[in-house]
Amino acid sequence: MTTYSAPSTLTPILTRGWGEDRSWTLESYRSRGGYEGLARANTMTAAEIIDVVKAAGLRGRGGAGFPTGLKWSFLPPDDGLPRYLVVNSDESEPGACKDVPLLMANPHALVEGVIIGSRALNCHHAFVYLRGEVPHAYRRLLSAIKEAEDAGLLGGLRITAHAGAGAYICGEETALLDSLEGHRGHPRLKPPFPAAEGLYARPTAVNNVETISQVPEIFRESAEWYASMGTEKSKGHGIFSLSGHVAHPGQFEAPFGITMREILDMAGGIRPGHHLKFWTPGGSSSPIFTEAELDVPLDYESVVGAGSMLGTRSLQVFDETTSVVRVVTRWVEFYQHESCGKCTPCREGTYWLKQILLRLERGQGLPGDVDLLEEIAGNIAGRSFCALGDAAATPVRSGIAKFRDEFEAGLTTPARELFPYEASANYQRGGVR
C-alpha cells in the first residue's frame, strides 16, 4: 500500500457539516451519508467487522493510540452473558476540547459507531460516560440516541448516556468503570484488564468518543480508503485542537503526519506582533515543544521520537509574553486538585510540587528549589497508581529542561514582573491585543 504524504489541506470528515443548520439531527446526518456504514456492517459477522477495523489501522483517539480492532479482539469468547462497550467522554485535561464539540455538532456519528462496535462485540448494552459539567452535550446525545431508537436503528441495542460527577480521574478507564458502577472513581489494579473483567466484572471494551465516531466512515467508504491517509503506522486522520496565542484558534481535522507549522499557517500564525515560545502537542500532560519541533510530523511515532506525546492532539500555543513557571504552576494546581488520593506519590507529590511552584511564581523561591522540583517529579513519574501522577510530573520536568533560567529567576523575581499578565492576555478592554 502506498504511504500517504500529508497535504497542507484539511480532511473534514467528522467535522463535515458542523456549520450546517441543525447538524446534530438525524435528518442532517443522513443527508451526509449517515448510517450507510451501519447498513454495510449489518451484512457482516462480528469477526468480519473487527477484521475491517484492524485493516483500516484505526488507533485509539483518547491519547494512548492503541489499535482499536486489536483491543476489541482481546475480549474472550462469548459465553452468552453480558459484554459491554463503554465510550469515554470524560474530556477534561487542560487544552483538550475535541470530544464535546463533536458531541454537540455530530452526535449521530458516535451513535452509529456505538451500534457497529456493539455488533462487533456482541454487546447488547453500551454506555457513554460524559462529564456532568456539559449538560448541553448530554442533552444533545440523549436526543440523538432517541432519534436513532425511534428510527429503528438500534436493533435491540440499549445505549445509556451517563453523566459523571465531574472528576478528571474518571477519564482513566478503570476509574470510569468504578464510577459507572456507583463507586467513587478510583483506578483499579491491573490485571485484570477491562477486556477480561471490566464493567460489572464482565468483558468490556473502553474507547474514546472520537475513536468510535470514526468507525462508521470506515464502513461507509472502505478500510483501504481510511488507511490511505496518515502515515505507515499512524493511519487515518484526527481532530487537532488549536488554542492559545494564535490568530484563529479552532478545530483542524487533518491526516496524521501534518506538521504544527502547517496547522499554524492555516490558523493565521501567532497573534500579530509576537512570536512562538513553546507549545504542547498533546495537552498539558505532554512534554512541551518549542520552535525547533515545528516540523515534527504529528503522528504517534514521530512525536514520541522527538521527546513528547501526541495524546489527544491538544495543541496549546504560547508566545514570548508567557511565563513558563506560571503555566506549569496552573497545570500542576489542576492535577493536584484532581488527584484521587489513592496513592502516596501522587497525593503527596503533587501537593509539594504546587507549593514550590507557587513560591517560585511569587519570586520567593528558596535555594535548591529547582533541583527539589526535579527530584519530586522524578519520584512521582512511573511510581503512581495511574497516569495522573505522570501527567503532573511531565510539564515540570520538561519545563525545567527547556527553560531552567525562568525557574531559577523565581528565587528573586515574581513572574508577574518578568511576564505581566496584561501582555499575555488575548483579550482586553478596548479590543484584541
Automatic annotation (TrEMBL):
One Pfam match: SLBB
Keywords from the UniProt entry: 4Fe-4S, Iron, Iron-sulfur, Metal-binding
PROSITE patterns according to UniProt: COMPLEX1_51K_1 (PS00644), COMPLEX1_51K_2 (PS00645)
Top-level taxon: Bacteria
Residues annotated as domain NADH-ubiquinone oxidoreductase 51kDa subunit iron-sulphur binding: 325-370
Gene3D superfamilies reported in the protein's UniProt record: 3.10.20.600, 6.10.250.1450, NADH-ubiquinone oxidoreductase 51kDa subunit, NADH-ubiquinone oxidoreductase 51kDa subunit, iron-sulphur binding domain
Coiled coil (residue ranges): none
Family: Belongs to the complex I 51 kDa subunit family.
Protein name: NADH-quinone oxidoreductase subunit NuoF
Organism, scientific name: Schaalia naturae
